[in-house]
Structures are given as structure tokens and as C-alpha cells.
Design a protein that fits this description.
- By secondary structure, this protein is α/β, with parallel strands linked by helices.
- It has a single domain, classed as Alpha-Beta Barrel (TIM Barrel), CATH 3.20.20.70.
- It has 12 helices and 8 strands.
- Helix 1 crosses helix 2, helix 5 crosses helix 7 and helix 7 crosses helix 9.
- The radius of gyration is 17 Å and the shape is globular.
- Bound molecules: 2-phosphoglycolic acid (PGA).
- The site of 2-phosphoglycolic acid has 13 residues, from strand 8.
């Protein structure tokens, strides 16, 4: 049985004092869960978040990083910079990064490799636009993004990658994919992984759903056989609401 992994993606929200308060509120709410709980916070909150979660079952991730080790890349953060302060996870290739910051399948692939090189666990995002869904290309897009993101990784690395299926039309819009549609998309991704890396790996890899997940729809989504938890944006900004999502059952 795969575990369920529920990650909050705070995006560009929350100051250090809000981060500390949030974690103080969330920790007792999720302390008994069997699900994995991750908060992906802005760079400037990482240190505070890492302090705050000590002695709890909450894990901390970043939302992006560069693939280079070091150098003249003003404003960028390297994989080592995250690793050395004990960040455990990193989101890679979120659709907002692909859309506003020119991330490509190629840079996503480089970032995945760079993450594994230092021992960070990547959460890599794939997803189709509304146009792509309506023209029947959704599965082709998401399986191709998956294939390109994972290219050149070892089987073991693939097994330890978390994939977040996030249809772009469902992010921050209040529109959620139906649980059946979301499950089908995650299933297609799993089939692609099985085709390339074998059934064993495809049965172990965690595939999350993201896009307007909230406490009122999390159970239905996460109970689907191919959905192993969620990447939660807006609804992860309020401790009580996020706690309910983590404790969906
Ligand atoms: P949302 O965002 O839950 O606010 O739709 C999800 C995401 O972008 O990861």
C-alpha cells in the first residue's frame, strides 16, 4: 500500500511570524496522522519553518531551486543551500514557474537530477491547460511532461520522485477535476512509468493531485486508487483547513 502524501504549497504567501504561528496551530492537529505532511514555504520562511517543526511530524520543502551548484546566477538558490539547512523536499516545475518564469521540460529535468545529487526529494508538477484538455491532448501532454522530467534518472530515483498532477485550469480557480478524471490522469501517468521503468516502480511511485483541493473534496479525491494525496495551494494557508485535509480520514 502506498502512503498518502499531503503537501501545502504556500506560493508567495506568509511571513516568518505567520509561519511560526501556523506551525504551532497545525502541529497538534496532525500529530496522529499516518499521512505524510509537508509544507513547501517561501525561501525566507524556511529557517523559521525548520525550527518550528522540530519534534513534530511535519516536513519542510522549498518551492523551487536552480540546477547549478553555484556561480553567477543573481537571485537564485542552489540545491546545496537547501540541503545544508535540512530542507527535505523541493517542488520542481510548478505550472506557475513554467508559465511565468520560462521553466521548460529540459530545466525541470536538470533540476530533478540536481535535487537527487544532493539528496533532496523532488515533487515534480505536470498538468495540461484547458485548451489541451478540451482538444483531447491532456494525457499526451502529461505523460510527455512526465517522461521528459524523469529522463536519465535511475529507477531508484524515479521511485523516490513524487509527481503532482495539477491540471492548470484547476489551480486557484475553485474548479476541481472530478475525482474520476483526476484518478484517470494519475493512472495514465502511472501506466507511462510502468511502460518505461517497470510495474514495480509504477506501483511504488507517489502521484498526487493538485488544483483547488480543500477539506470538502479531499476525501473523495484521495480515496481514488491512483491518487496518493495532494499538493494544496490556497487551502494550505489556514492551519485548521489544512489540518482537515491532512486528516481527511
Ligand atoms: P490551489 O493550488 O490548491 O490553490 O489550486 C495548487 C497548486 O498550485 O499547487
Amino acid at each position: 500500500m502506498r502512503r498518502k502524501v499531503i503537501a501545502g504549497n504556500w506560493k508567495m504567501n506568509m511571513l516568518p511570524n505567520e509561519t511560526m504561528k501556523f506551525i504551532e496551530e497545525l502541529a497538534p492537529l496532525v500529530k496522529d496522522t499516518k499521512n505524510e505532511v509537508i509544507l513547501c514555504v517561501p525561501y525566507t520562511d524556511l529557517f523559521y519553518a525548520l525550527m518550528g517543526v522540530q519534534g513534530t511530524n511535519i516536513k519542510i520543502g522549498a518551492q523551487n531551486m536552480h540546477f547549478e551548484k553555484k556561480g553567477a546566477f543573481t537571485g537564485e538558490i542552489s540545491p546545496d543551500m537547501l540541503k545544508c539547512i535540512n530542507v527535505e523536499y523541493v517542488i520542481i516545475g510548478h505550472s506557475e514557474r513554467r508559465q511565468y518564469f520560462n521553466e521548460t521540460d529540459e530545466s525541470v529535468n536538470k533540476k530533478l537530477k540536481a535535487a537527487f545529487e544532493v539528496g533532496l526529494k523532488p515533487i515534480v508538477c505536470v498538468g495540461e491547460t484547458l485548451d489541451e484538455r478540451e482538444s483531447g491532448k491532456a494525457f499526451q501532454i502529461i505523460t510527455s511532461q512526465t517522461e521528459k522530467a524523469l529522463e536519465g534518472l535511475t529507477k531508484d530515483q524515479v521511485k523516490n520522485t513524487i509527481i503532482a498532477y495539477e491540471p492548470i485550469w484547476a489551480i486557484g480557480t475553485g474548479k476541481t477535476a472530478t475525482s474520476a478524471d483526476a484518478n484517470e490522469a494519475c493512472e495514465k501517468i502511472r501506466e507511462k512509468i510502468s511502460e518505461i521503468y517497470g510495474k514495480d516502480i509504477s506501483e511504488e511511485i507517489i502521484i498526487q493531485y493538485g488544483g483547488s483541493v480543500k477539506s470538502s473534496n479531499s476525501k473523495e479525491l484521495f480515496d481514488e486508487p491512483n491518487i496518493d494525496g495532494g499538493l494544496v495551494g490556497g487551502a494550505s494557508l489556514e492551519a485548521n483547513e489544512f489540518g482537515k485535509i491532512v486528516n481527511y480520514k
